[in-house]
Each structure stands twice: as structure tokens, then as C-alpha cells.
Specification:
- The protein has 10 helices and 11 strands.
- The protein has about 350 residues and is α/β, with parallel strands linked by helices.
- The chain folds into 2 domains: about 150 residues, ATPase, nucleotide binding domain (Nucleotidyltransferase, domain 5), CATH 3.30.420; about 170 residues, ATPase, nucleotide binding domain (Nucleotidyltransferase, domain 5, 2-Layer Sandwich), CATH 3.30.420.
- The strands form 2 sheets. A 6-stranded mixed sheet has the order 5-4-1-2-3-6, sandwiched between helices. The protein has a 5-stranded mixed sheet with strand order 9-8-7-10-11, sandwiched between helices.
- Strand 2 and strand 3 form a beta hairpin.
- The radius of gyration is 20 Å and the shape is globular.
- The two termini are about 25 Å apart.
- The mean pLDDT is about 95.
- Bound molecules: 5'-O-[(R)-(carboxyoxy)(hydroxy)phosphoryl]adenosine and zinc ion.
């Protein structure tokens, strides 16, 4: 089975081709540069970039995988969750291609897709590393991205229960907001972790949220960082955050970044260990943009008594490969096909 996967939920336009778990191509075009000066994704700019790049990205993905349309057995597309304007471009393109090329169409959940990148067990793309072993069930998946922080128990393929999720900000969002407070570039995840390397994670005590057993909360931590930055800068609580970076030294920024990162990561590790004790999964899967974080990967791998699957960092942020992989499993398990004349976007889709 050879599947074309299309992902356009946010600021990445991506298409990939997978053939029985073997990733043949994954072309990603990002509009991240265009959003940088605004410190976050601007939905209208993202959607415009999607329109401009979607067709060349799909064409290149087919070419790299040496596929003709006749070789493609089905099309999988993200229909939610995500930004409405961005999702529309992918869904309308996939619907049109499904009709014109007469291919079955599968609608995919973006968050599930992040998890399914861990089921790619072969690739002909030189720069990508994939784990040849397949994750065994039952397993626990930890999805940490700019829009989601969730803990999910999988009994088998596509058979899952949501154990917990964030009650407010996603962890990636907290990284992005803290980066803004410290005047570090967007996206905040990579810039916080680079700055944190120069700081001491035990320099400041920051609070861990007390929420439901498997739930997360990161907005209190973000506010605690703002208060800490104001105190370090010697200004009051009403001092505007956009003027803080110039009042903080590089050493102060590094210590705040390191303390924030280690508190955020340790609250994730605590929850994953709790879930491990209750459900004794055969492995844990890490997924989502924040899964690219080295400290998170190392802390989880050290803490867990079972194997931890972590995707290649290039497959942690949004990409078509994850949707191609999820779509392939949905086709294999005979999940209901989408009607190419009717498939709607679902910006608030949950798991
Ligand atoms: O999964 P993703 O590409 O998009 C969403 O579906 O949200 O995740 C993007 C998020 C951003 O918040 C970004 O700051 C974060 O992933 N991120 C990281 C790292 N690389 C990206 N967070 C922490 N450490 C990183 N190395
Ligand atoms: Zn994502």
C-alpha cells in the first residue's frame, strides 16, 4: 500500500509518501521565517503561504518517492485540529486530488499523526533516522507540541484512551511565551534550550502545577517566570514584559531559561512515571514539536524502566510523514473513508 500524506494544519506545508511503513519522501515547506518578527504564527500569513506552496510540495514529494499517480493507493490529509485557514488548503487540495485522480481519501487527526511517526520503521531518505523495531502495545504516548500536551494510553492500533491533557497552555506554547519574555527568537523551544545550556537549572525554584492526576498546566509556570524576570530586572509587577529583555543580563536570562526548562520537563516526567506505574506499558512514545528537546528525551529515557521511542528531531515538528503513516494504518484497519465531496475541516478536533 502506497499512501500520499498531506499536512497543512499550521505554518508547515508538507507532503510525504509512505509504502508499508517505509518512508519514501517527506517534503516540508515552512513559513516560520515570515512569522518570526511577530513572535508567533499569524494565521492569515500561514494560510497564504500554504496556498503558494501546496502544489509544488506535493509534486516534489511524488517525484522524490518515484511515484506516478497510478502508484498511489490512497490520500491521507489532516482535517483537524489546527488553524482554519491553513487546514482548508490541505483539505480542499486533497479532496480535489481524490476526485480528479480517483483515489480513496482518509481524514486524519493531527495529534494522532504526531504519535504515528513512531511507527515509520524504514526510510530511503538518507538524512532521517527511524527505529526499525515497532512499538509494542499496550503503550503510553506523550504528545507535547505548540498546541497540545496529552498523555494517551493505547491498547492497540487506533484503540486509545485519553488519560490527561493540559488545562490551559500547551508546553510548547509555554516555551514560546517564556522565550518572548526573555527576548529570545521564535520558536521558543530551540532558543530556550540553547540559552538554558549556559545557565544553572537549580538557580531558581519555580512551581509545578497541582492539577488532575494525568493533566498538565503550564500557564502558572509561565506567569511565575514573568514575575521572576521582573524581580531579576528590579522592576514591579506592572512593568511591561516587552521591555524586560533589555533589563536582563545574558547570565540572568540563561538561569531563568534553564530553571523554566527543567521545571517544565520535570512536571512531564512526573506524570509519565505515574502513568507507567499504573498501566505498566511495554513502551512509551514521545511525539510533537517539543519532543525535539534533548533534555526531555534524556530525562524520560533515564527515568523510564521500559523502552522510549523518540522520533528523529526532523519528524517531531509538523510534517506529512506523520499523516502518511497514520493514514496508512487507517486504510489497513479499514477505518471509514472520507467523502471527497464533503470532508470538512475541524479546527477544534480532539483525540
Ligand atoms: O508539533 P509542532 O511543530 O506544532 C504544533 O502542532 O503545535 O510543535 C511546535 C512547538 C513550538 O511551540 C516549539 O517552540 C516547540 O514545538 N519546540 C520545542 C523544541 N523544538 C520545537 N520545544 C522545546 N524544545 C525544543 N527543542
Ligand atoms: Zn503539530
Amino acid at each position: 500500500m502506497r499512501i500520499l500524506g498531506i499536512e497543512t494544519s499550521c505554518d508547515e506545508t508538507s507532503a510525504a509518501v509512505i509504502d508499508n511503513g517505509n518512508l519514501l519522501s517527506n517534503v516540508v515547506s515552512s513559513s516560520m521565517d515570515l512569522h518570526q518578527k511577530y513572535g508567533g504564527v499569524v494565521p492569515e500569513i500561514a494560510a497564504r503561504a500554504q496556498i503558494e506552496t501546496i502544489l509544488p510540495v506535493i509534486k516534489e514529494s511524488l517525484e522524490i518517492s518515484k511515484s506516478r499517480w497510478a502508484d498511489i493507493d490512497g490520500i491521507a490529509v489532516t482535517y483537524g485540529a489546527g488553524l482554519g485557514g491553513s487546514l482548508l488548503i490541505g483539505v480542499m487540495t486533497a479532496r480535489t486530488l481524490a476526485i480528479v485522480k480517483d483515489k480513496p481519501l482518509m481524514g486524519c487527526n493531527h495529534v494522532l499523526g504526531h504519535i504515528y511517526v513512531n511507527f515509520i520503521n524504514k526510510t530511503s531518505i538518507k538524512e532521517y533516522m527511524v527505529q526499525e523495531k515497532n512499538p509494542k502495545f499496550p503503550l503510553i504516548a506523550v504528545i507535547l507540541s505548540g498546541g497540545h500536551s496529552q498523555l494517551v494510553l493505547f491498547r492497540n492500533h487506533l484503540d486509545y484512551t485519553l488519560l490527561g491533557r493540559t488545562q490551559d497552555d500547551a508546553i510548547g506554547e509555554a516555551f514560546d511565551k517564556v522565550a518572548k519574555i526573555l527576548g529570545l527568537p521564535y520558536p521558543g523551544g530551540p532558543s530556550i534550550s540553547a540559552t538554558a545550556l549556559k545557565g544553572d537549572p537549580s538557580s531558581h525554584m519555580l512551581p509545578k502545577a497541582k492539577v488532575g492526576k494525568y493533566d498538565f498546566s503550564f500557564s502558572g509556570l509561565k506567569t511565575a517566570v514573568l514575575r521572576l524576570a521582573q524581580a531579576q530586572a528590579g522592576v514591579g509587577f506592572d512593568f511591561p514584559s516587552y521591555n524586560l529583555p533589555e533589563r536582563l543580563s545574558e547570565a540572568q536570562k540563561a538561569n531563568i531559561a534553564a530553571s523554566f526548562q527543567s521545571t517544565a520537563i520535570s512536571s512531564v516526567v512526573d506524570k509519565v512515571l505515574l502513568a507507567y506505574e499504573e498501566y505498566t506499558p511495554r513502551c512509551v512514545l514521545l511525539a510533537g514539536g517539543v519532543a525535539a528537546n534533548t533534555m526531555l528525551r534524556e530525562s524520560l529515557a533515564d527515568a523510564l524502566p521500559c523502552p522510549l521511542f523518540v522520533p528523529d528531531p526532523k519528524l517531531c515538528t509538523d510534517n506529512g510523514a506523520m499523516i502518511a503513516s497514520l493514514g496508512e494504518w487507517q486504510f489497513k484497519l479499514n477505518k471509514p473513508l472520507a467523502n471527497p465531496y464533503l470532508l470538512e475541516i475541524a479546527p477544534n478536533l480532539s483525540m
